[in-house]
Design goal:
Strand content: under 5%
Number of domains: 1
Helix content: over 70%
Order of helices and strands: HHHHH
């Protein structure tokens, strides 16, 4: 197994678990999820924030499913990596929105989020460029 394929598979395992974990927290225990990432609600949890958190959690569950499918046959579903890249780009844009419009992130939190998202984008693109020419597995 090529080293990049191993890295992609290991990353996908972590990615699936991450999305399942935060999907669960956002849906069923938003305060704990907020505490884990260091986010606080300025005015407490109102019905709108709870609904938004649950919607976010459902999206996280769906993304975990997408990444699980990709994990089953990473070369066959390599193009799904663009879903993960898009997720990171949206994360950057949303971080800036939360910072600028809602004032719910500190400059440090925004910088850390941007850095993490940017590193993930670069890593995913490097994996995609390194694996896209490998032969795909044949369907059974």
């Amino acid at each position: 197994m090529p080293k990049r394929l191993f890295i992609l598979k290991a990353g996908l395992v972590i990615w699936v678990l991450w999305h399942l974990g935060f999907g669960y927290l956002s849906t069923f225990d938003p305060q704990l999820g907020a505490d884990v990432v260091g986010w606080s609600t300025p005015d407490g949890w109102n019905d709108e924030l709870l609904a938004m958190s649950k919607q976010y959690g459902m999206v996280m569950f769906l993304l975990a499913g997408v990444y699980l499918i990709m994990l089953l046959d990473p070369l066959r579903y390599l193009s799904l990596i663009w879903v993960a890249v898009g997720e990171q780009v949206l994360g950057i844009a949303y971080g800036f929105y939360i910072f600028a419009q809602l004032g719910q992130l500190t400059t440090t939190q925004l910088a850390v989020q941007f850095a993490v998202n940017a590193v993930l984008i670069v890593g995913m693109l490097l994996l995609w460029f390194g694996l896209r020419r490998l032969p795909q597995t044949q369907p059974a």
